[in-house]
Design goal:
By secondary structure, the chain is an alpha+beta fold. It has one domain (about 5-175): Deoxyribonuclease I, Chain A (4-Layer Sandwich). Helices cover about 20% and strands about 30% of the residues. It is built from three helices and eleven strands, in the order E-E-E-E-H-E-E-E-H-E-E-E-E-H. It has helices spanning about 50-65, 95-105, 170-175; strands spanning about 5-10, 20, 30, 35-40, 70-75, 80, 85, 110, 125-130, 135-145, 155-160. The strands form four sheets. A five-stranded mixed sheet has the order 3-4-5-9-8, with no helix packed on it. It has a two-stranded antiparallel ribbon with strand order 1-2. Helix 1 (about 50-65) packs parallel to helix 2 (about 95-105). The longest helix has 17 residues, at about 50-65. It comes from Patella caerulea (Rayed Mediterranean limpet). One of its GO terms (cellular component) is extracellular matrix. Pfam families: Exo_endo_phos_2.
Length: about 180
């Protein structure tokens, strides 16, 4: 897409996550200067229990180390009701443990619209956007899927408070000299 840089994870079978950022943002996956961390995640619907537990561990690690996080991806937890933040699965199940992890980490899930539509299946919210601060997201627009995907695209408008670089020139003095 013109005007955007692409970040993606290379997975087989046409699955995965792509993030496009406006070229003028000069995005990086980790920004150690501002204490921000950006992560994109794809969790297969057939993930093992250990893989799901490892994901929870990673989320806990990220949220304990960074004051600002942006975590986006396809988590494939269709049994979570995101409006009520509940699940009908049992304690110990991957879905239940994931929801508990999200709550323990004080992550805010920003997607409220269905993100996956497949014929003869109930629409679901599988693609999620997390931050630690409500004000980090200005808006999320649901857009048409890319290619043959049965997942919508999400256009996320972030509220970035990036400190301006300090100039070595005292502009007040320069103006007064003229």
């Amino acid at each position: 897409m013109e005007g955007y840089d692409m970040f993606y994870n290379e997975l087989d079978k046409g699955r995965g996550v792509i993030i496009y950022t406006q070229t003028n943002l000069h995005a990086e996956i980790e920004d150690t200067i501002t204490g921000s961390y950006n992560e994109m995640i794809y969790r297969s619907p057939s993930s093992s229990f250990d893989n799901s537990s490892n994901l929870n561990h990673v989320l806990r690690e990220i949220t304990s180390r960074y004051p600002h996080v942006l975590i986006v991806g396809n988590f494939n937890y269709r049994d979570i009701d995101w409006e009520k933040e509940t699940t009908n699965t049992q304690p110990g199940s991957p879905c239940y443990e994931f929801l508990e992890c999200v709550k323990d980490c004080y992550l805010i899930q920003h997607v409220g619209d269905y993100t996956r539509y497949r014929q003869h299946e109930t629409p679901s919210i599988l693609d999620l956007v997390y931050t630690k601060n409500e004000g980090d997201i200005n808006d999320i627009l649901v857009m048409e899927p890319l290619g043959k995907s049965d997942h919508v695209s999400l256009k996320i408008s972030l509220n970035l408070n990036i400190p301006k670089k300090q100039s070595n020139i005292d502009t007040t003095k320069e103006i007064m000299k003229i």
